[in-house]
Amino acid sequence: MREHIRTWLRWPLYSPQRLAAVLIALVVVLCVISALNTGSSPSSAPAGDAQPSPAAPDASASPSMASSPSAGPSASPDLDGAVVFARAFVAAWASHTESKQWYATLAPSCTERLATKLATTDPSRIKATKVGGAKVTDTGGGELTSAAVDTDAGQVSVGMVWTGNGWLVRDIEPGAQAVG
Q1: Fewer CB atoms inside 10 A, N or C side of the chain?
Q2: Cα–Cα distance list, 21 to 16, 105, 125 (Å)
Q3: Residue 120 sits in which domain range?
Q4: Torsion angle, CA of 156/108/67/54, rounded to 10 degrees?
């Protein structure tokens, strides 16, 4: 029994990628637990007047953390949240972790169509390694939006759809030009 525990405790230390993945997963779990413990109530202000949160999620964290709405399933799309979500998604996309782990991190945060495409993507072929700023480039009329995320390999366009429970990435295109 002790040997199994030692193996599990040593596993993250075998490579920097594993250690980074474990740390990212730990941050996500802590943020989810924190969000569940603090609870949230619907805001009385319209979505366009939403103030950015004082502690925005780390861009290296899993995008699913940023996709959860603050006001439940009936919440309207939050464009500030979309920017944070797009940036976090691109950070995870550019993480260059092992293929299965990379896919497992991204798949819950994207549409089935994109998840199918990502399943055959080799993350080592992604040129981006660092993420910079992000901005909404197209509001698309409510439930669809796009964002341009700066990386060390150029801009990445991220198309997103609002599900009522949060944002999902529907398309990601490296080298795309910002629309807005």
Answers
A1: N
A2: 8, 9, 18
A3: 2-37+58-174
A4: -80
